[in-house]
Amino acid sequence: MRTLGSLAFVVVAILLFNSGYESRRFSREVIEIVSIVCIAAFGLSGILSFLKLLFPSELVLTPEGFSVRGLRKSVLIPWRDVQAFGLVEMPGGATMAGFVLKPSAKSGSRDRSVTKFMVPGFDGTIAVFPEEKPAWIVKVLNEWLQRYAPDQ
Fold this sequence. Notes:
Elements: H1 2-19, H2 28-54, E1 58-61, E2 65-69, E3 77-78, E4 82-89, E5 95-101, H3 103-106, E6 124-126, H4 134-148
Antiparallel strand pairs: 1-2, 2-3, 4-5, 5-6
């Protein structure tokens, strides 16, 4: 849906740029600058959205840990570094899976972010959008945590 919205804004901006329209309020130069900024911003957003459609984020579970593979680099979080998984309520009512790292794992300088969403009480969120509900993802992650890091 985001891809189509971006495409619509780009098309409108191109039409406005090529129309020769000039209002009483804004000069032609201002309209052209705004059109170019819209084309650049929404064009880039549309390209990134399209790439996310082609290469969706994917939660990868291994005996060593978990990672989310997508457009960004994949970072492996070892099971031994995870304290717990839980449901995260995002602003707007969306629910995601989140994780809390052990205090000893937080002291490392290594980048451990799995996604860009950070919320209070959690060290990171897992932004994958499968057909399964976030509660099911948390259940599976906790089962893997118990299996591969039973000393939790």
